[in-house]
Design brief:
CATH class of the largest domain: Alpha Beta
Structural class: alpha/beta
Distance between the termini: 73 Å
Shape: globular
Largest sheet: 7 strands, mixed
CATH superfamily of the largest domain: Aldehyde Dehydrogenase, Chain A, domain 1
Strand content: 15-25%
Oligomer: single chain
Number of domains: 2
CATH architecture of the largest domain: 3-Layer(aba) Sandwich
Helix content: 25-40%
Bound molecules: nicotinamide-adenine-dinucleotide
Radius of gyration: 23 Å
Length: about 475
């Protein structure tokens, strides 16, 4: 077993206590992980605060160079990171490898960005110039579904703009984040990047901490609300990337088999544990049976198993709590609709649930209304497109969505009516580092990526210079 440690003030530090990290494919302990206490949290924030003045004064080009070196370091260790990610998160090794390579590419793209000063107004009496100043210590809190990508985005955005960071990964996937910190430390001055781990018990202390200026949080809506409340004590800047219940709207002009493959991929990638996964599909009555049959066929043929095996197409649900939650939703779905594939767990100690397709289900069923965040797709029938759009919008979530059609113009018209932060036409998960995205309604607050995403790590600072008489 490797020896994982916290990173506080440039020093690899044992935890105040320890906790086991479980491989969700077999229930075995993969590593003993350090567990920080509140003193260590305070030490990490103090280190980040002390490192802030010098780091924020560095030229952005110097900060960029260090971030590029970290991106290179991550990519150079793709194999090591990917196997550890599969072991702690469960995803197939191919997807884990893609996550590591994708995270290093995302780091480079974000680190290449500039936040130049802008002249907002220039008239005969004077000039208003906008600068972007860093905020101070950023708390970067991440969930367990894409631990490396989400940490890489937050860390790069915060450090490029001149802030320092205390990161806190989810308790069930801390190892890749600890390995990342150890690798990054070689390229950064002490205290610029710190990492602590917990058992879901240090979040409030971190988000209330008076010396934390900004919270960049990705996780569930329920925790997001708590974060906003804790952050309100000192009016911290807060960015929340939260849950979703994304609808896919299929128009009546598509090839049923072709669209079924796209819906299946959109719903089942990462075992359905993606904030922007397709979580319900609206299919016109004319092709409903054909699409359902094809989805069931693909579900039945999916090779579910240990992600470390090269032929595995879908791994386990990441943790026991989520496993129980998804099982409970499937139990409700048995009474709410007809399960035409999956619906059962697999034998053995792992948290395996076969891809599950539910048809003939009503709009108010739990499996439709709640974010399942697992390998389950309810398929809803519609006769009238306006009605399908209204049903897709009838939720407090507003993260993403998709429209599938052979007429891109018609698709874009439908997509414009979906009340979310992003809606794709004939595509899914197309995310670009230069395009900022964020959730609508209760799916989030603020944005990540793009110039606007970077700006959220800064204070807008206006300098007015009067023109001489
Ligand atoms: P979670 O909210 O339970 O945990 C997320 C993180 O918050 C973890 O690090 C956890 O330890 C920490 N945390 C727990 N209590 C806290 C508190 N009181 N204060 C501060 N932090 C606290 O979420 P999860 O179960 O790890 O992740 C799944 C959820 O994340 C889903 O709802 C999913 O849709 C969402 N998600 C959203 C996005 C997005 O970009 N919108 C991306 C990935 C996941």
């Amino acid at each position: 077993m490797e020896n994982f440690q916290l990173l506080i003030n440039g020093k690899l530090t044992p935890g105040a206590s320890s906790m086991d990290v479980i491989n969700p494919a077999n229930g075995q302990v993969i590593a003993e992980c350090p567990r920080a206490d509140e003193n260590q949290l305070n030490a990490a924030v103090a280190a980040a605060k002390a490192a802030f003045p010098a780091w924020s004064m560095l030229d952005i080009g110097d900060r960029r160079q260090k971030l590029m070196a970290i991106a290179d370091g991550l990519e150079a260790k793709t194999g090591q990171f990917a196997s550890l990610l599969t072991a702690e998160q469960g995803k197939p090794i191919k997807e884990a490898t893609e996550e590591i390579i994708g995270a290093s590419m995302m780091m480079r793209a974000l680190a290449s960005m500039e936040l130049p000063e802008k002249v907002v107004m220039d008239d005969e009496s004077g000039k208003f110039i906008e600068h972007r100043s860093p905020l101070g210590v950023v708390a970067a809190i991440t969930p367990w579904n894409m631990p490396v990508t989400l940490l890489a985005i937050k860390m790069t955005s915060a450090l490029l703009t001149g802030n320092t960071v205390v990161a806190k990964p989810a308790p069930t996937t801390p190892l890749t984040s600890l390995l990342f910190a150890e690798m990054a430390d070689a390229h950064l001055p002490p205290g610029v990047f710190n990492i602590i781990t917990d058992r879901n018990d240090l979040g409030t202390a971190l988000t209330r901490h008076p010396d934390v200026a900004k919270i960049s949080f990705t996780g569930s809506c329920a925790t997001g609300k708590k974060v906003m409340e804790s952050g309100s004590q000192s009016l911290k800047r807060v960015t929340l990337e939260l849950g979703g219940n994304d609808a896919a709207i299929v128009l009546d002009d598509v090839d049923p088999r072709d669209v079924a493959a796209k819906l299946f991929a959109g719903a089942m990638f990462n075992c359905g544990q993606i904030c922007l996964a397709t979580k319900r599909a609206y299919v016109p009555a004319s092709i409903y049976d054909e699409v359902c049959d094809e989805l069931a066929r693909m579900a039945n043929e999916t090779r579910v198993g240990d992600g470390s095996q090269p032929d595995t197409e879908m791994g386990p649900v990441q943790n026991k709590m989520q496993f129980e939650k998804v099982k409970d939703l499937i139990e409700s779905a048995k009474a709410e609709g007809t399960i035409i594939a999956g619906g059962e767990t697999m034998d053995g100690p792992g948290y395996f649930i076969r891809p599950t397709i539910v048809r003939d289900v009503d709009e108010d069923a739990r499996i439709v209304k709640e974010e399942q965040f697992g390998p389950v797709l309810p398929v809803l029938r519609y006769d009238d497109l306006e009605d399908a759009i209204a049903r897709a919008n009838d939720t407090h979530y507003g993260l993403g969505g998709t429209v599938w059609t052979s007429d891109a113009t018609r698709g874009a018209e439908v997509a414009r009516q979906i009340h979310t932060g992003i809606c794709w036409v004939n595509a899914h998960l197309a995310v670009h580092p230069a395009v900022s995205v964020g959730g609508a309604k209760q799916s989030g607050h603020g944005t990540e990526l793009g110039a606007e995403g970077l700006e959220e790590f800064t204070q807008r600072h206006i300098v007015y210079v009067a023109k001489q008489g």
